[in-house]
Design a protein that fits this description.
Layout (H helix, E strand, L loop, with lengths): L2 H4 L19 H15 L4 E6 L5 H9 L6 E6 L6 H11 L10 H17 L3 E6 L7 H10 L11 E6 L2 H6 L5 H5 L1 E7 L4 H14 L9 H11 L3 H17 L7 H12 L5 H4 L5 H29 L11 H40 L3 H5 L7 H12 L12 H6 L3 E7 L2 H7 L3 E6 L5 E10 L2 E6 L2 E6 H5 L2 E10 L8 E2 L4 H22 L5 H14 L2 H11 L7 E2 L1 H11 L18
Helix pairs in contact: 2-3, 4-5, 10-12, 11-12, 21-22, 21-23
Length: 588
């Protein structure tokens, strides 16, 4: 929106991990060097950690552009999966064919055979796992076992783990010490320093086509303080500040505009003590005086209550005053402790009653989640399978996602909001937490406006989105229909059969879109334009264009999200989440 006002060619502060906008601070250069060192020295595990938004994924994208040409990459972006699902994802990324429902042993054997064949052809294999702090201990151990295959010179598989600081804590566990010892290169990516923030902002503006400075020195200093040097927060604040400058026709962004932008993006980012820096001495003195006065009153009240408790009249005539005073004091102290404990217990009970009472006074859903049935996860996934018309009678102890693959479906575990869930338009399993802190699962079967139909403990129930919002943190899982190939990832440069299948699907989608956009009198022109489009653009270009149109990252690979959107347009039989007034599924 503000690009034309500032004379920009691109959006300078997008949070997408575009390597063109990677400002290589000293910290980022060191992180990239560690990744490249690990790859060239054929180590087992390479570790890159950093706080949220410090640029781990962007550094990794830059790293991908510099890997040797003889390197095969498997990039895993949704690691909250079982061991078998992770092995299947690696097979998909490396285009290793396997039978759906294959066991862990079969998948491991296939990967090992692929590694041996790749080594014989002089190729290296690297698995990169983003958000690796979400991996379970069992899955990390499964990864370690994959790296056991080696020659006398090098490991045949290298694994790059990108994660938040929690990953470092995980690797300190005794059961993961063997994996930790195999890490040959590790680096923790810190936030940017104050000088780097100014260079970072100017660099991104320069790449977007603006050479002059837009942010005043005071604005940069305030930006550093409020963002704490985290690149993602810098991008969000700067983007909002430039929008504000455009709205007010200002060519320079100053300190007040940065603070206003930060409030809109982060809420109120400054604690009261930080705000005191801008107050006058009179205001500071008043606040400090009030605080000191309140502290003194509390101390006097405490001492006064203690003094009264330790002055019983019967101690005046005691024949052994010291012993008697101690004994009476002990009795009084004990009584006082019991009163305090009893008071605290009553307070805790009262607070619990308030939580339970408030929920109990609400809807059927709010009452139901206070007395959870057993194994809500199993019942929720069974309801989801039935929504896909998959018989769950033989599910028993088989992991549900493994069972789904036998029916040509796959689980997608991810995190988002209502907007992302609605864009997929698929029934989902939601992971929730009730007011008492207990985790549970429900199947979200239908959405109609602000209300939904869920399955809770196997029982259908009507709820509002506001009620779900109170207990949902954004974690959900959906099922999606696999393509008719061994791999779940279809590339524009894949086999001839994959290219033909993908081209046919895009032909159908483009024909539908052309029909929707023109009236009946222009059908011939639309058809001719469609033919010219197919001849003028490669399959890769057409796939990327489709991904942009549906709001996905245009990576040229038809993965889970891309195929879900394709199915929404072409397959009327897949179950939908949204319903229209007649109760029928809407087409996206």
């Amino acid at each position: 929106m503000y690009s034309k006002f500032f004379g920009l060619k691109d959006s300078p502060f997008s949070i997408a991990p575009d390597p063109r906008f990677l400002y290589m601070s000293e910290r980022h250069r060191e992180g990239l060097a560690h990744l490249l060192y690990g790859i060239t020295h054929h180590g087992g595990f390479i570790l890159l950690t950093g706080e949220v938004g410090t640029g781990k994924t962007t550094v990794c994208r830059c790293f991908l552009e510099q890997v040797p040409a003889n390197t095969d990459i498997a990039f895993i972006v949704h690691p909250k999966v079982t061991g078998r699902e992770l092995l299947a994802s690696i097979c998909d990324e490396l285009q290793i064919p396997y039978v759906r429902g294959a066991s862990i042993k079969v998948l491991v054997d296939l990967i090992n055979q692929h590694l041996l064949n790749a080594h014989a052809r002089g190729r290296n294999t690297v698995v990169i796992i983003d958000e690796a702090q979400n991996l379970s201990t069992e899955v990390l151990e499964q990864l370690r076992l994959l790296t056991n295959l080696e020659t006398s010179e090098k490991k045949l598989l290298q694994i790059v783990l990108l994660g938040q600081p929690e990953l470092l804590d995980m690797l300190k566990r005794p059961e993961l010490r063997q994996l930790s010892q195999r890490i040959t290169a590790r680096y923790h990516l810190d936030a940017l320093g104050k000088d780097d923030v100014r260079a970072y902002v100017q660099y991104r503006l320069s790449v977007a086509g603006l050479k002059r400075e837009v942010f005043t020195p005071d604005a940069i200093a305030t930006l550093f303080r409020l963002s704490k040097g985290v690149p993602r927060l810098i991008n969000l604040i700067c983007d909002r500040a430039m929008l504000g400058a455009y709205a007010t026709h200002r060519e320079m962004i100053d300190k007040p505009l940065i603070k206003q932008a930060a409030r809109e993006v982060l809420g109120d980012p400054e604690p009261i003590w930080a705000k005191m820096k801008n107050w006058g001495w009179a205001a500071k003195g008043t606040l400090i005086g009030l605080s000191a006065g309140m502290l003194m009153l509390a101390l006097l009240f405490f001492l006064d209550s203690r003094g009264r408790a330790l002055e019983p009249e019967q101690l005046v005539e005691s024949s052994s005053p010291v012993v008697e005073r101690v004994q009476v004091a002990e009795v009084v102290e004990a009584g006082e402790t019991e009163e305090v404990l009893d008071s605290r217990a009553q307070t805790d009970a009262s607070e619990t009653k308030e939580v339970v009472g408030a929920a109990s006074a609400g809807s059927q859903f709010r009452r139901a989640i206070l007395n959870l049935p057993e194994n809500t996860q199993d019942s929720a996934y069974r309801a989801l399978l039935r929504r896909w018309e998959v018989d769950d009678a033989d599910l028993q102890q088989t992991p549900v996602c493994d069972y789904a693959e036998l029916a040509g479906l796959r689980c997608l575990h991810t995190q988002g909001n209502w907007r992302s869930l609605l864009s997929l338009d698929r029934p989902a399993v939601l992971r929730l937490r009730n007011p008492l802190g207990q985790e549970f699962y429900v199947a979200l079967l239908e959405l109609d406006g602000d209300s939904a139909i869920i399955s809770h403990g196997g029982q259908p129930m009507s709820v509002t989105l506001d009620e779900l919002d109170e207990v949902w943190s954004g974690h959900y899982s959906v099922l999606w229909k696999l393509p008719p190939f061994p791999s779940a990832l279809i590339r524009a440069n894949g086999s001839q059969a994959e290219r033909d299948w993908l081209s046919h699907r895009l032909d159908q989608i483009e024909a539908i879109e052309a029909t929707v956009k023109v009236d009946a009198n222009a059908q011939g022109v639309a058809a001719q334009r469609l033919v010219l489009t197919r001849e003028a653009f490669s399959l890769d270009d057409r796939l990327r264009d489709f991904q942009v149109r549906v709001g996905l990252l245009p990576d040229g690979i038809a993965g889970s999200l891309t195929l879900i959107h394709m199915n929404s347009l072409l397959d009327p039989d897949v179950p939908r989440l949204k319903v229209n007034r007649l109760g029928a599924g809407e087409a996206n």
